[in-house]
TrEMBL record:
Protein name per Swiss-Prot or TrEMBL: GNAT family N-acetyltransferase
Gene3D superfamilies in the cross-refs: 3.40.630.30
One annotated GO molecular function: transferase activity
Keyword Transferase recorded: yes
SUPFAM superfamilies assigned: Acyl-CoA N-acyltransferases (Nat)
Domain of life: Bacteria
Keywords: Transferase
InterPro entries: Acyl_CoA_acyltransferase, GNAT_acetyltra_YdfB-like
The keyword Plastid belongs to this UniProt entry's keyword annotation: no
A Pfam family hit: GNAT_acetyltran
Length: 244
């Protein structure tokens, strides 16, 4: 049985392949031909998208996207190879055609990481607060002062306040009309106390109230973030792979 079978929500087609499409569309700005342009971010300077995105799923289908400046011939070959990628049941496993992808794009750097869906059954275990520009100054410590400039474009933003200061946050860092991607931060001295899972769970509830799906992804080397996903029992639907 597909592990997403029990995650049905009205009006959503929650196949792993569809979730991967929501994921890539949240990560990157696309042109009218579904070519990648830039990172989907409302803050700071515009950052170019990677040359290649591959999302392998537990359904056995892959989502493949290319930056606007990748030659058509190269894009066609990348697409052909991606269609032959097997389904992925666990992370981390490099793509079957990893070497070919790197060679076709003369790649020097790549990223890879697991992708999760936050199901409705996840609920916060600790009391949290919604953080806005209006109330943030009451609780933000020095280490979180950078968050002030993000609050208007990173909503929902949920925080756990401990002894009158924010120690852990989860906010929407990539946003579309269909899905939000989570971004979490916990002060170093407060990690390992269950704060991060609590804010992720509350953030997911807030995202659903907006009529969107809560998605969570991370990098292969970010074991603490993967631990949060494990503690919450998030549904793994695939892995992403990019070449800069």
């Amino acid at each position: 049985m597909n592990q997403l079978d029990d995650l049905y929500e009205p009006n959503w087609e929650n196949t792993a392949n569809k979730l991967m499409e929501y994921h890539v569309e949240a990560l990157f700005v696309h042109d009218q031909h579904s070519r990648l342009l830039t990172i989907n971010e409302n803050l700071g300077p515009t950052v170019p998208a990677p040359a290649f995105f591959l999302g392998r799923t537990i359904d056995g289908k892959a989502v493949c996207r290319f930056r606007y400046d990748v030659a058509d011939k190269t894009a066609k070959r990348l697409q052909e190879l991606s269609l032959e990628e097997p389904s992925i049941s666990e992370f981390p496993a490099k793509p079957k055609y990893f070497a070919e992808y790197m060679a076709l794009l003369h790649g020097q750097q790549y990223t890879m990481g697991p992708c999760y869906f936050v199901p409705r059954i996840v609920t916060p275990s600790l009391q949290v607060k919604s953080l806005t520009r209006e109330n943030a100054a009451n609780w933000l410590p020095h280490d979180f002062e950078w968050l002030i400039r993000e609050l208007d474009v990173s909503q929902p933003c949920v925080a756990l306040v401990h002894q009158n200061i924010v120690v852990s946050i989860c906010r929407s860092v990539r946003i579309t009309n269909f899905a939000h991607e989570a971004g979490i931060e916990t002060l170093k001295e407060y990690r390992g106390n269950g704060f991060a899972p609590a804010v992720v769970a509350a953030w997911a509830i807030a995202v659903r109230k907006l009529g969107c799906l809560p998605l969570y992804s991370t990098l292969a080397e970010n074991h603490s973030s993967q631990s949060v996903a494990s503690k919450l029992g998030l549904a793994y639907y695939g892995s992403n792979f990019t070449i800069a």
